[in-house]
Design goal:
It is a single chain. This protein is α+β, with helices and mostly antiparallel strands. The protein has helices spanning 14-24, 28-32, 34-37, 73-82, 87-108, 123-138, 168-173, 191-200, 259-271, 302-312, 360-370, 374-386, and strands at 2-7, 43-52, 55-64, 143-146, 149-150, 152-153, 155-158, 161-164, 179-180, 186-187, 210-219, 230-238, 242-254, 276-283, 289-297, 319-337, 340-348, 354-358. Strands 14-15-13-16-17-18 form a six-stranded antiparallel beta sheet, with helices on both faces. Strands 4-1-12-11 form a four-stranded mixed beta sheet. A two-stranded antiparallel ribbon has the order 2-3. The longest helix is centred in the N-terminal third of the chain and has 22 residues, at 87-108. It is globular. The model has no long low-confidence stretch (mean pLDDT 90).
Length: 389
């Protein structure tokens, strides 16, 4: 699996992201043709090699001639959907702009669809976001990770006047994400940069071990004295079938909840995004029987899982810890039996061999519909999978 690690030690912006992607090998000719593909008039893109402190870096400059209209989210959606972009690229770019609209809406007290985009709705921001999504796609990146984001300090002048750093929309975008408050002068993470990272990055945890393929250095427009104004993106490839990630373990021990509540909460935890949720019988103080309810989730979901447990159970305290989780590479497969289709979960072992297991819900639905035994259907589904070339 190809992955990208965004090393935002000096912040992140849209143009810095484009510069790093071009430096990694994203064809500048395709990026330069993007404004035309999106139907944006008066927009051109330049690229040059520059120095930022000790770094040789690639600077990408999106130039806009003439006045650009203020756009709503519906206008952005129309531009992206009618443009000559691959489907996944248009969807990701729209997800980034939707995140921006939600943040701007909260700042101004408006619903996302009513927000008038100013800087972030201008043509250069459309190119920044669509171009970044296209660049990751062309480089074959399947997973994106990021370091904590350096936000800067002081103030920034925007369409609404002088704002503190991080700007209000940037701060809302970064809720739940780790930030670095190093006292660097000026705005280092822009709303566009923040929206790109929080939307596209799988997590802010270290990526799994990978073989480094290349690094790209993208330059910001300002020359800064305290830290080079560059963004580094590392491009890599995972080294085997085992993926390592950090997972949060959230648990509580109960002796005063009914079995109905426990069953309900376990299902709600899964619906809230937990990777797994389970119940373990325990003996508590004074000899009372109880249960430990455990949820495994991404670190970014800890607050959501904790709120659910506090709201839905009688607990007055939780335990939270972070552990390493190792996962085999997995995929889904489909086999066709005379009775119907069966989905299988397929994992790849470190030695390259594959192992399949039928999905229970798929088997159970077929068994109910046909009257065939679950065990017989499972055996035939595995045999059909093994018989595939």
């Amino acid at each position: 699996m190809k992955l990208a690690f965004i090393d935002a030690f000096s912040g992140v912006s849209g143009d810095m992201t484009l510069g790093a992607l071009v430096d990694l090998g994203f064809a500048f000719e395709e990026l330069a043709a993007l404004p035309g593909a999106l139907g944006l008039e008066g927009v051109t893109i330049g690229s040059k090699e520059v120095r930022r402190g000790p770094f040789r870096a690639r600077q990408v400059d999106v130039r806009v001639e003439g006045k650009q209209p203020h756009r709503h989210l519906s206008h952005i959606r129309e531009i992206l959907e009618r443009g000559a972009l691959p489907g996944p690229v248009a969807a990701r770019a729209l997800a980034v702009f939707t995140r921006l609209a939600e943040a701007e809406g909260k700042v101004h007290g408006e619903p996302p669809e009513k927000v008038h985009f100013h800087e972030v709705g201008a043509a250069d921001a459309i190119v920044d976001i669509a171009g970044a999504c296209l660049g990751f796609h062309r480089l074959g990146v399947e997973a994106i990770y990021s370091s904590p984001l350096v936000v800067g300090s002081g103030t920034v002048t925007a369409a609404h006047g002088v704002l503190p750093v991080p700007a209000p929309a940037t701060a809302l975008l970064l809720v739940g994400a780790p930030i670095d408050l190093a006292p660097l002068a000026g705005e280092r993470t822009t709303p566009t940069g923040a929206a790109l990272v929080v939307t596209l990055a799988r997590s802010f945890d270290p990526p799994p071990p990978f073989r480094l393929l290349a690094q790209g250095i993208g330059a910001g427009g300002r020359i800064t004295e305290d830290r080079p104004n560059v963004l580094r993106i590392l491009l890599g490839e995972t080294t085997g079938a085992v993926d390592r990630r950090v997972v949060a373990v959230v648990e509580t021990t109960l002796d005063d909840a009914s079995p109905q509540v426990i069953a309900h909460v376990t299902q709600r935890l899964l619906e809230a995004g937990a990777r797994d949720a389970f119940v373990t019988p325990v003996q508590m103080k004074k000899g009372r029987p109880g249960v430990t309810v455990t949820a495994l989730c991404d670190p970014a979901l800890v607050d959501r899982v904790a709120d659910l447990l506090f709201r839905e159970t009688p607990t007055i305290g939780l335990r939270v810890r972070h552990e390493e989780r190792r996962e085999l590479a997995r995929e889904e497969a489909l086999v066709r039996l005379p009775e119907g289709e069966v989905r299988l979960k397929v994992v790849t072992l470190p030695d390259g061999t594959r192992r399949a297991r039928p999905e229970y819900e798929s088997l159970a639905a077929l068994a109910r519909a046909t009257g065939a035994s679950l065990e017989a259907l499972a055996a035939r589904a595995l045999a059909a999978f093994d018989a595939q070339p």
